[in-house]
Amino acid sequence: MKRHVFFILFLISVLEISAQEGYPVPPNSPHRLFYIQHANNHNTYVYEANFLSGKNLSDDEPIKIHRINYKKGGIKEELSNLQRRMAYGISFVKTAANTFDFTLAAYPAKKLVLKVSNDAIPYVTVFINGKKIILRRMFLFCNKLGTGVSSINFYGKDAATGREVTENFEVDN
Q1: How far apart are CA 135 and CA 138, in angstroms?
Q2: Which of 20, 84, 88, 143 would you call most buried, defined as having the most Cβ atoms within 10 angstroms of its Cβ?
Q3: d(Cα 142, Cα 130) in Å, to the nearest integer?
Q4: Residues 6+ apart with CB under 8 A from 23
Q5: Nearest to 113 by CA among 90, 88, 130
Q6: Could you tell me if 49 and 34 are in contact, meaning their C-beta atoms sit under 8 angstroms apart?
Q7: For residue range 85-104, what is the model confidence (pLDDT) as tens digits?
């Protein structure tokens, strides 16, 4: 019985990994925090730190978000009002100088934290499965309509060890 369970879990993990093959990586930017992709198409949602000057984040809009539309040749687009309100937009609260707690519109139960290092490098952390991760990207496993997400893979560095990690998070619907 244990063999069957492990085999099924193995197949699921292989299918999840292969579902992400062939996805484009957005152009790097010194202010990019992380990006989100999903199973329904290759369009990518990019989150970048919004600096006012030097090392100071904007208090009014600490994160700028845009979409890369790969269906249209990779052009950069603003989010629609619906995307901003229902899925990829953020709500944030300033908690200290250059530090903001924020959530994504689609899943306000999961808190993320934006900070700026002493070297003026912006980064986002999130707790997943008991690990603090410095987030690089997220991949959403969603239904065909894109209206429901079953799980999310979080990719980044383990904040304690510095090792690259992938953590799967099952979404409570």
Answers
A1: 8
A2: 88
A3: 24
A4: 37, 42, 44, 139
A5: 90
A6: no
A7: 988 999 999 999 999 999 99
Query: What tens digit of pLDDT does each residue of 46-82 get?
Result: 999 999 987 899 999 999 999 999 989 899 999 999 9
C-alpha pair distances (Å), 56 with each of 29, 70, 143: 17, 32, 39
Provide the whole-model pTM.
0.85
40 by DSSP, 3-state: which? coil
Structure tokens at 81: 């009002």
What is d(CA 127, CA 134) in angstroms, rounded to the nearest whole number?
9
For residue 100, give the 3-state DSSP assignment: strand
Find all residues with CB under 8 Å of 22, minimum gap 6, and list them: 42
> Could you tell me the pLDDT band of residue 167, with boundaries at 50, 70 and 90?
very high
Q: Three-state DSSP class for 163?
A: coil
Q: How many CB atoms lie within 10 A of CB 149?
A: 19
How far is C-alpha 95 from the geometric centre of its chain's CA atoms? 21
- Write out the two tokens for 32: 């990019």
